[in-house]
Design goal:
The complex is a heterodimer of chains A (219) and B (76). Chain A contains 6 helices and 11 strands. By secondary structure, chain A is α/β, with parallel strands linked by helices. The chains are: A alpha/beta (219), B alpha+beta (76).
Chain lengths: 219, 76
């Protein structure tokens, strides 16, 4: 499997994500600078990493969503390639319209940086099929704008179509219906605020995030 | 030619920043404040002849996230 990690000015989880991709697939990902207008041929999986792209100017992810490379990422997603956006990457994917909803300032205003319990809501997707439905996992979060918002109709549709991948099992940021991660309609794009790449080797204190990358590697 | 774009959160969208400002005002003894909503203002210096439709397009594509925000355009 060939992978790529997008790098924006202000990304800071790009190398962590690259390590997670490499450990799962056995191949180093292509690191793609935001100015690129195309992706290398044959990329199967694209990671949009966490960080503070463009200093979170205007809104988190808003500037990155307009960068040249995101057009190529949207095209790849439309062709069914896998795309995972983590933390700021999730914000970028909602701002680009690849995922519904928006990520607002945490309800408690504070930046939240700690391990949180998640429940796996959909264990059928290419991202989550190595988890059990309803399983509780521990994954770190580190964000200021993680409060997922969508109108009631959109939330009903996401739930009805099994597109909620993960929910918070505890109060974290005020997200609507405790949503921590959502899938697109095709099931090939996932956005999530928690950082599975920060819980994917023993030195991280657990391996709960690793199964997500292992699942993708065999997708 | 200048235009001013005011961006506010839609009604019903929780505004934690506004709430914090509200609490701070109460802390200062200003008790007559019923609610506070925070937004942002963006001033555009535009070429003469820029149409309303173009400014609206700027708002929809970048300046506002219409999932959560409303915008209002005023020409100065």
């Amino acid at each position: 499997m060939k992978t790529a990690v997008i790098v924006f000015p202000g990304s800071n989880c790009d190398r962590d994500l690259a390590v997670a991709f490499e450990q799962a697939t056995g191949q180093k990902p292509h690191m793609i600078w935001h100015r690129e207008t195309s992706l290398p041929d044959g990329i199967d999986l694209i990671g949009v990493p966490g960080g503070f792209s463009y200093g979170d100017y205007l809104r988190s992810g808003a500037m990155a969503a307009q960068s040249p490379v995101m057009r190529a990422v949207s095209d790849a997603a439309a062709q069914g390639r896998y795309v995972i956006g983590i933390c700021n990457g999730f914000q970028v994917l909602t701002e680009s319209g690849l995922l519904p909803g928006a990520l607002m300032r945490n309800a408690g205003i504070s930046f939240v940086c700690r391990d949180v319990r998640l429940t796996v809501d959909n264990s059928q997707s290419a991202f989550t099929n190595l988890y059990e439905k309803g399983e509780e996992i521990l994954v770190p979060v580190a964000h200021h704008d993680g409060n997922y918002f969508a109108d009631a109709e959109t939330l009903d549709r996401l739930e009805g179509e099994g597109r909620v991948a993960f929910r918070y099992a505890e109060a974290v940021n005020g997200s609507a219906r405790n949503i921590a991660g959502v899938l697109n309609e095709g099931g090939n794009v996932l956005g999530m605020m928690p950082h599975p790449e920060r819980r994917s080797e023993p030195a991280h204190g657990g391996l709960d995030g690793k199964r997500l990358f292992d699942a993708l590697a065999s997708a | 030619m200048k235009a001013r774009v005011t961006i506010t959160l839609k009604n019903g969208v929780l505004d934690p920043q506004g709430k914090a400002i509200h609490h701070a005002l109460e802390g200062l003894g200003f008790n007559g404040v019923n609610d506070v909503r925070a937004g942002k203002m963006i001033e555009l210096d535009l070429a003469d002849g820029t149409s309303d439709a173009e400014i609206e397009d700027m708002c929809r594509k970048l300046l506002a996230n219409t999932v959560i925000e409303n915008f209002r355009i005023e020409r100065a």
